[in-house]
């Protein structure tokens, strides 16, 4: 007992016999009593990610398991017995991500593998636009090459996030890459799907720390610019108009439109600029930036607000960029 008590607390937690156990429970009515199902695996789970009706598990040792409605394979896998993604064996996966109906994984070498629904190009596979209901049944490598350097180099990925129709990757050079469909890609294009990963030029030169995806929106956490650089890019006039300091557009209202064929490729920086806007304008902008006339209320996480940004945020060395 004395030997056990003498160990550091974090070491005792790591050696607990129940570490890495996963419990999953379905949605239910307000009066329905739910009982979590225990996921049975031979090794501890170190990371999990959930899609619309499926989940991906990363087990110790780099093995990947899936459960739920795997429509791209025509399977319905019970939570209690997830299936091994055998095609990833030997690649030592270090990170997994689940989108609405697709999945992604990063190997320890920084390679990206994706599988699932690919109708919007969200799996980053070859252009097969003439084929409907495109699916990728097994994890396939995604080619990510930076052709802006000579000679072109393969991009090493350290972060991955998936939405419903798009995917984002963070490179080891802290650059953001995107593919799939919709304005949530942050790309300067209105031609979709984007079948191959493209660098998000709007954040070129910025140090991206982390990326996240909602169903139809994206967020990038970036390192703040030095005070003198920020003031040089933002005049009092642009702050009054609520524009991003890096948005060289004559009038931001041109980007806020209800035209289903119009996409906004530029991110909105959640800083003092956004705090100066009125709540009513923010609500209108979020609803109209969705493709196909969808409102923000139709996607997960749409209830998030900007109220958590206090006056102290201007001294925080991080900024958020939303697409």
TrEMBL record:
One of its GO terms (molecular function) is small GTPase binding. Pfam families: RCC1. Signal peptide: none annotated. Residues 293-310 have a biased composition (Low complexity). InterPro entries: Alsin, RCC1/BLIP-II, Reg_chr_condens. GO terms for biological process: endosomal transport. RCC repeats lie at residues 62-109, 110-173, 174-224. GO terms for cellular component: centrosome; cytoplasm; dendrite. Residues 230-249, 274-323 are annotated as: Disordered. This is Uncharacterized protein. It comes from Fundulus heteroclitus. The lineage of its organism: Eukaryota, Metazoa, Chordata, Craniata, Vertebrata.
